[in-house]
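User:
I study polymers; will you set down one protein's sequence and backbone structure tokens?

Assistant:
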Amino acid sequence: MRIAIISDIHGNFEAFKKVLNDIDQYSVNLIVNLGDSIGYGPDPEMVLSVIEKRGIKSILGNHEQAVLDKTYREFFNHGAKNSIEQTIKFLTSASLSYIKYFPKVRTIDGALFVHGCPPDSNTIYLNHLTYVEMKSVFESFSNQLCFVGHTHMFKLFSYDGKSIDSYPLTPGYKNLPPGYRHIINVGSVGQPRDADKRAGYAIWDTAQNCLEIRRITYDIQSTVNKIIERGFEKKDADRLF
């Protein structure tokens, strides 16, 4: 099976549609979305509508949770909180009902899928954890593979039961070595934060046990213009460049 794994679209429909166009050119059996489909970007309703129409299996991100739970927004910084409140203005009641059913965890073909950190957190950032904390994370779940988003950066963590190796993932193919368990951060479709402004996603070939990292160009200026026009934070636009 070939599974396309996307994350952190953040209401950026221009990036999302280009990624979907790219996915459709490959023999992909399934698309899994790791959450934060909304927030920061100007087209949350359009993004959710396409996710639903295409039957994309989605995870509850911290931004979806903040939209659903007002008290949860208090944990956001000022800019992110403003973005969530602006996002809500562009969502229909049907979309609000739809995201209520996003689970925090999915297991597909033996792999674990979660927004932030295994086993089931949509708030913990892996890049904020110490080496000792990362070992505890690996010991908290039993799956051979776990796919995450949240940091907006591609990265692979590999654990052999004793030590952890980690390094960024760049475009192209990557074989996942046997004898290790892996946590794979699939970057961000709508707001990359790894010095590459292109939209990013991954394809996992379950039979070959390998990844393909894809980076896709899109019309950034169009997204930026809509962010400003629709009253979102200017820094949400600036981050795209």
Remarks:
- Helices lie at 13-23, 44-53, 62-68, 78-88, 93-99, 131-138, 220-229, 234-238.
- Residues 2-238 form a domain with the Purple Acid Phosphatase; chain A, domain 2 fold (CATH 3.60.21.10).
- The chain has one domain: 2-238.
